[in-house]
């Protein structure tokens, strides 16, 4: 009986302990549920506040990854996107490099980066360590004083440039027995006028020391350096008849095979014609040089005829000036439009009206022919 009483007492104690443990578990679960409910209410309250303030439910992201899809966030943060590729650069035209020599003899130099005759002379002078004022004129593809190869406003991209520099200075006395001296004057575009032609049988032709290519430096001790060819021609024309005057001339320095060379008229159908290459570098007194196609047969024919008119009316030859005149009138419909355009471009030359009429007639004839 005593044993049974002890067993019952022990069972009662175990049962009480299980009940107390169960009660503690129940209280813990209730407390956990209660805490969970509080956290849920708090979250809902926070969401509500966010919506009231107009803020969405997206998680806050760094500026580097905002705007990306959720699946891209990790990739973007670990490997930033590379910057966009810059646009391809515009195509660069190959540099135009020309070969050059001094006409009387020198090593070959290379020049580039010029847009007009003055800059061309500067580049040549730098190549040979001389002053640009030493250069009288340039010829293309020949070292001789050949006025048919004189450098004008265009250079073939494969042309070889020969620079003729100052040689000996000489003075000659001329008696003007006739109105016309028989000289055709041109200039180099940088202030040096020189003799381009000597008419056979003329006053100047009888003075054997005067040669084609001679630079006219002074008339009666008056310097004409810086004057254009038409200004020099006008000065010579206005000299009184039957009186003498003095010319100070500077001849180009000659190589051995050029000594005693004297060219007179030397007219040629190829005068002023660029014969090498399909493209040319067009030099301009104003603005940048441009690469253009070689002149067409029409342009060459009309330019040659206008150059002949320049010689006839003004006593000068200038293929660049003739080309500019042709360009001015090429697309004009009548003589009046041509005259107005001519005066706006070349009004400083003060050409006579007869010259303009003859030029317009030459252009019209070439168009219709």
Question: Concise description?
Answer:
This protein is of the alpha+beta class. Helices cover 37% and strands 18% of the residues. The radius of gyration is 47 Å and the shape is globular.
Order of helices and strands: HHEEHEEEEEEEHEEEHHHH
Total E-strand runs:
12
Helix content: 25-40%
- Based on CA inertia axes, which overall geometry fits? globular
Number of helical segments with 4 or more residues: 8
Distance between the termini: 154 Å
How confident overall, as mean pLDDT? 77
Extract low-pLDDT stretches: 1-11, 13-19, 46-77, 265-277
Descriptors:
single chain, 369 residues, alpha+beta, 7-stranded mixed beta sheet, 8 helices, 12 strands, disordered N terminus
Structural write-up:
- There is one protein chain.
- This protein has 369 residues and is of the alpha+beta class.
- It is built from 8 helices and 12 strands.
- Strands 1, 2, 3, 5, 8, 9 and 10 form a 7-stranded mixed beta sheet that branches. It has a 3-stranded antiparallel beta sheet with strand order 4-11-12, with no helix packed on it.
- A hairpin with a 5-residue loop joins strand 6 and strand 7.
- The chain is globular, with a radius of gyration of 47 Å.
């Amino acid at each position: 009986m005593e044993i049974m009483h002890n067993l019952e007492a022990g069972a009662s104690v175990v049962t009480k302990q299980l009940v107390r443990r169960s009660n503690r578990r129940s209280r813990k679960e209730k407390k956990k549920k209660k805490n969970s409910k509080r956290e849920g209410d708090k979250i809902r309250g926070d969401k509500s506040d966010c919506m009231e303030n107009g803020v969405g439910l997206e998680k806050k992201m760094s500026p580097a990854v905002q705007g990306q899809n959720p699946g891209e966030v990790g990739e973007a943060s670990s490997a930033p996107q590379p910057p966009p590729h810059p646009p391809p650069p515009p195509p660069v035209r190959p540099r135009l490099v020309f070969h050059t020599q001094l006409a009387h003899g020198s090593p070959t130099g290379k020049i580039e980066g010029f847009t007009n005759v003055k800059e061309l002379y500067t580049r040549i002078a730098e190549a040979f360590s001389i002053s640009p004022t030493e250069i009288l004129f340039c010829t293309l593809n020949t070292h001789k004083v050949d006025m048919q190869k004189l450098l004008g406003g265009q250079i073939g991209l494969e042309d070889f440039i020969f620079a003729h520099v100052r040689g000996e200075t000489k003075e000659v006395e001329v008696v003007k027995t006739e109105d016309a001296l028989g000289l055709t004057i041109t200039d180099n575009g940088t202030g040096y006028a020189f003799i381009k032609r000597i008419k056979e049988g003329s006053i100047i032709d009888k003075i054997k020391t005067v040669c084609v290519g001679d630079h006219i430096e002074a008339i009666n001790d008056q310097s004409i350096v810086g004057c254009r060819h038409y200004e020099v021609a006008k000065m010579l024309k206005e000299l009184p008849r039957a009186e003498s005057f003095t010319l100070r001339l500077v001849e180009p320095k000659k190589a051995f095979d050029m000594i005693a060379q004297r060219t007179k008229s030397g007219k040629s159908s190829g005068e002023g014609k660029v014969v090498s290459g399909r493209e040319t570098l067009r030099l301009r007194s104003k603005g940048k040089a441009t690469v253009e196609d070689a002149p067409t047969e029409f342009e060459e024919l009309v330019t040659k005829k206008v150059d002949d008119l320049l010689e006839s009316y003004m006593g000068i030859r200038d293929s660049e000036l003739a080309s500019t005149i042709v360009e001015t009138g090429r697309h004009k419909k009548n003589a009046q439009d041509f005259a107005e355009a001519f005066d706006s471009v070349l009004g400083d030359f003060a050409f006579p009206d007869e010259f303009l009429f003859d030029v317009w007639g030459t252009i019209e004839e070439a168009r219709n022919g």
